[in-house]
Amino acid sequence: MKNPAFEMEMKVRDYECDLQGIVNNANYQHYLEHTRHEFLLTKGISFAELHEKGIDAVIARVEISYKTPLKSRDKFISQLRVEIDGFKQVFHQEILRLPDMKLCIRAKADNVCLVNGVLSRCDELAEKLIN
């Protein structure tokens, strides 16, 4: 990924693997979500504080392309960049195996905001994400 806005290193845990010895596909969603949450924290964004204001940020759609499997104890880099597309905050994410930087997955997660239960642009969140 060119110019990621955020990246973090993680490690595969044994229990995340299936009988084939590779990371179960559902666990990649955990890695992606953890990366998004850590990114939000660096931007000073708190889900609890947003919720208190009546703002709920929710994932509306996720697309994942699986390229190379991770195995137990593999280390990897999870990175993202974000763009605003109308009502959506679009997270483009990749996971790269270390140390060879082999692409494991490429994903896109569309986030939307509900303000008091109504779909809204949520400019407050969007501004913090891109600055």
From TrEMBL:
One of its GO terms (molecular function) is fatty acyl-CoA hydrolase activity. InterPro entries: 4-hydroxybenzoyl-CoA_TE, HotDog_dom_sf. Keywords: Hydrolase. The keyword rRNA processing does not apply. Pfam families: 4HBT_2. PANTHER family: 4-HYDROXYBENZOYL-COA THIOESTERASE FAMILY MEMBER, NOVEL THIOESTERASE SUPERFAMILY DOMAIN AND SAPOSIN A-TYPE DOMAIN CONTAINING PROTEIN (0610012H03RIK). Belongs to the 4-hydroxybenzoyl-CoA thioesterase family. This is Acyl-CoA thioesterase. It comes from Candidatus Enterocola intestinipullorum.
